[in-house]
Design a protein that fits this description.
By secondary structure, the chain is an all-beta fold. It contains no helices and 11 strands.
Length: about 110
Amino acid sequence: QVQLVESGGGLVQAGGSLRLSCAASGATFSFETVAWHRQAPGQQRELVATIGSGGPPNYADSVKGRFTVSRDYAKNVVLLQMNSLKLEDTAVYYCYWPRYNTWGQGTQVTVSS
């Protein structure tokens, strides 16, 4: 059974940085498509970034230039580096693997003023 576990969330001041990690068990990410989503209170879950098997990663307009998605093949994790964080980035961040239609449990990111 494939499972995803996110980590790295926390409380950070506006302008700060966090790095989220999505670790997989039961399968290897390799070059497959993996996505990061987020959901703020009272709002729908939205796509933040996608890393695929070919071409550059894709980002939501709201995070372009600030967030970077990457892989660590040796550790079988997908990372989301978040810089210049804003109040509106506050949300629960989820990792999603489309091939297995599997979500992680989410990690809370809270940006304070």
